[in-house]
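Entry type: protein chain
Record version: 2
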Amino acid sequence: MSGLPTVPEQRCLEQSAPDGRRAGFVLGLDVGSSVIRCHVYDRAARICGSSVQKVESLYPQAGWVEIDPDVLWLQFVAVIKESVKAARIEMNQIVGLGISTQRATFITWDKKTGKHFHNFISWQDLRAIELVKSWNSSLLMKLIHSSCRVLHFFTRSKRFLAASLFTFTTQHVSLRLAWILQNLTEVRKAIEEENCCFGTVDTWLLHKLTKGSEFATDFSNASTTGLFDPFEMCWSKFIASLLSIPLSVLPPVKDTSHNFGSVDEEIFGVPIPIVALVADQQSAMFGECCFQRGDVKLTMGTGTFLDINTGNNPQQSVGDLFTDAAETEKMAKSLEDSEGVYFVPSFSGLQAPLNDPCACASFMGLKPSTNKYHLVRAILESIAFRNKQLYEVMQKEIHIPVRKVRADGGVCKNSFVMQMTSDLINETIDRPVHVDMSCVGAASLAGLAVGFWTDKEELKKLRQSEMVFKPQKRWQEYEMNMGNWVKAVKRSMNWYNKT
C-alpha cells in the first residue's frame, strides 16, 4: 500500500480561464438515501463551501420505506443556501447546477396543482414483494422467456437474450408503481383524467425548482426504473402495457448533461441554470473519470455498488453500513481475525447475485468470548466479501478487461476494507482525496454543459488520488473465511418469506 499526499486547503477564487471561459462556481448536489449533500466547486474543482443534512426515512408498515417530499424539498433548498453562504459567495456567481439523486425512488403528483398523492416510495421499499413473486412465477413470464429464447436463437440479438433473462425485482420502480396504481384510487382517477405525473427524485426536484414549468428525467435515472428499454433508449411500451402503466405519466427522457431550464427566480433570488440530472452511481462514475471501456468504480456508502464502463453497447446480466470508518478500522486491525463470527449485510435484502429481498441481516458464530471488536471486524469483512462476490459476477457476465478500479463513498475511508478488497479481487484500487463522488460527478457534468470546464481531459487532470491500495495477501488466505461467510449468507436467505 502506498500513499499520496493530500493537497493542502487553498483559498477558492472566482477566476476566468485564460481562454475567456466563464468565471464563477458550480454546485454539485447529491440527494442520497442517508444524506443530502451540496458542494460549491471552483475551476480547480476545489470545494469552497459545503452543507449536509440527514435524510429521514419513514417506516409506516413493516417492509415499507418512504420519504416525506415536503421535508426533502426544504432540506434541498437549505443545503444550497448554506453551502453558498459557507463559500462566502453570492447566488449570482453560480453558473450551473448539477443534481445527483438516489435511484428508483419515486413519487406521483397532480399535474395541475403540483400536490403529491403520496410520499416518496424508496428503492428500499418491499410493499410490492408479492406482486414481484406473482409476476416472476406467472405463466405469462414463462411464455415471454421461452419466446425470447427462440427469437435470440434465430436472430442472435442481445435484446432478445436480455428479455429471455429479465425478471422483476423489488428495486425496480415498475411493480411498486403498479402497486400504487392498484391501491390508490386518487392516482387512478388522476390517470383517467390525464392529470397524473410520475417522477423519480430528479424529476420531482426539477418540477419544484422550476415551479412546474419543466417535466423531464435523464437516461441514467430512467434506466433504473425497470420501465426503460436500454437497447432502444426509450420507455418500454411492452413493459408499460404489460403492467397497465400509461406512457402519458412518464417524463420525457433527456441527455444527462442538458439544459433542463432555470431555477425559478423566487427561490434563490436569481435564475440558476439546471444543467445536469444524473443517478448517483453513474454520477460517481463520471466523477471518478471512468471514461474508458473497462474502467471500474466501487462505491461503498449506504449500499455497495460496483460498476464497469461497458462502452457503447448495453450488456445483459443474469444474475450499507456505517459512517465512522476511522474508529472501526482501528477496532478491526486490533484483531487477527473475527474468531469465527460472520455478518450478513442484508438490511434491505440481498441484491446481485443473490437477489433475495427476504434475506435478513444477521450475526452468526457468536461465542461467550465474542466482544464488540469481533462484531465490528465481521461487519467490515462482510463488505469486502460482498465486493469480491460482485467483482466475480462482473467478470463472469461482462467479458471486458478491467483497466483500473477507483473507489468512493464514505466507507472507502476505511483502509481495512480497502486493503482486504484489493487482496480479494487482486487489483490495485485508487482512493481519491474527495470521496463524495456523486457531488463531483454532478458538478462535472454541469460544468461541462456551461463551458466552465472544457472537456473530460481537463477533468482527469483535476482528479486527485489520496491513496493507492495494492494486493498484499493471496486469495487462498481468505478462502476458508469467505466460504464460511457464504454459508452464513445462505442461512439468512428467505428469512421473511411468508410461504
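Comment: The CA atoms of residues 97 and 268 lie 12 Å apart.
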